[in-house]
Design a protein that fits this description.
Strand content: 25-35%
CATH superfamily of the largest domain: P-loop containing nucleotide triphosphate hydrolases
Number of domains: 2
Distance between the termini: 27 Å
Radius of gyration: 23 Å
Number of strands: 20
Structural class: alpha+beta
Strand order of the largest sheet: 7-8-9-4-10-11
Length: 361
């Protein structure tokens, strides 16, 4: 939709009585997906409302690529910020059909804005066969597809998504994650995406804005966020690594993917067709270490690696940072006993072993 690589700069406050947003100074490159991440009540949705101009009590300053959205003298109305919204509950009109919901916003576009191609949007989003259906007969995933299509039809410069997957079951979530990836790539649309689910962050994010107690703590690339052992992304399931790989044709019911010049990682589930690159999510607790390459073993993912750091974790555990052959980082969690028995130390050459059933996209 837009090839302009914009930069958002701001410092916003919003006093809601029981909660106060005091963001502090922040900068967000508006390319790809920026995830707003933090615990419930940290201020993610409040910041999004302040950025979008939905709450008139917002104070401070905000610029996008030099254009003033808010300062002491001026506040750009929400409709002139050209933002598309997708909320947790889809926010559709229940008395209208899918087509009527989509056209409601299109008919209210300013005359100087041409809506996106209707047929292309509904086809891409997967609702072309549901246009005449009442929205009350749609599943949760279908309702969110309609909400996304409605936002895209408005030709926004920025798409804001507030926990769009939180009410969906695991299958619908998987389908929607793939859809969001495809749409971001197809329309080159910057996205601000709220979630408290680390798996969604690791799947979608180009960068992460961490929030706590109404304040922006830091904005980091995904790889920066995953590189630090104290990352808030690790609070639920421990340390996680995300490997970039290129999928290959299925073999014997397994999904191989290539990284580096010669390494192949095997996944137990197929990835959607047409993807050139995937993100492979590996929990540190699912990575075992060996000093030599074992042969007679059911685990088929064996990767040569170098130990670069040992990080104490408490409870007699260590986080071992590894460098793979192509330079990508992989974490392994081991006991203090195992580390001493194998004499693990920085510079040691090891093999990282990962079960295929433990590897997900």
């Amino acid at each position: 939709m837009s090839d302009i690589q914009a930069l958002m700069k701001g410092d916003l406050t919003l006093d809601l009585g029981s909660f106060r947003l005091d963001s502090g100074s922040f900068e967000i490159p508006l390319q790809g997906v920026t995830v707003l991440f933090g615990r419930s009540g940290s201020g993610k949705s409040t910041l999004l409302r302040a950025i979008s101009g939905l709450d008139k009590r917002t104070e401070g300053h905000l610029t996008v690529n030099g254009e003033i959205w808010q300062d002491e003298a001026n506040v750009l109305p929400t409709q002139k910020r050209h933002i598309g919204f997708v909320f947790q509950d889809a926010a559709l009109f229940p008395h209208m059909t899918v087509r009527q919901n989509l056209m409601y916003g299109v008919k209210r576009l300013p005359k100087d804005i041409t809506p996106e191609d209707f047929d292309d949007i509904v086809q891409r989003v997967g609702i072309a066969d549901k246009l005449n259906r009442a929205v009350t007969f749609l599943s949760g995933g279908e309702r969110q597809r309609v909400a996304i299509a409605r936002a895209l039809l408005m030709r926004p410069k920025l798409l804001c998504m507030d926990e769009p997957l939180s009410a969906l079951d695991w299958r619908a979530k998987a389908e929607m994650l793939t859809l969001i990836e495809e749409l971001v790539a197809a329309y080159r649309l910057p996205v601000l995406y709220i979630t408290h689910a680390p798996a969604e962050v690791e799947r979608l994010a180009d960068r992460v804005l961490f929030m706590q107690n109404g304040r922006v703590e830091t904005v980091e690339t995904l790889q920066q966020a995953l590189a630090r052992p104290d990352s808030p992304l690790f609070d639920e399931q421990g340390a996680v690594s995300v490997l970039q790989a290129s999928p290959l044709p299925m073999q014997d019911g397994l999904q191989p993917a290539r990284f580096g010049e010669t390494e192949t990682i095997w996944l137990s589930e197929a990835v959607p067709k047409g993807k050139e690159t995937i993100r492979v999510r590996v929990l540190a607790r699912d990575v075992s270490l060996a000093l030599s390459d074992p042969k007679d073993l059911s685990i088929i993912n064996h990767f040569p690696a170098e130990v670069t750091e040992l990080i104490p974790q408490g409870q007699h555990r260590l986080l071992v940072r590894l460098r793979l052959s192509d330079g990508q980082q992989l974490f392994s969690e081991v006991t203090q006993h195992s580390a001493e028995r194998l004499k693990i130390q920085p510079g040691l050459a090891v093999f990282a072993l990962i079960k295929s059933v433990a590897v997900t996209e």
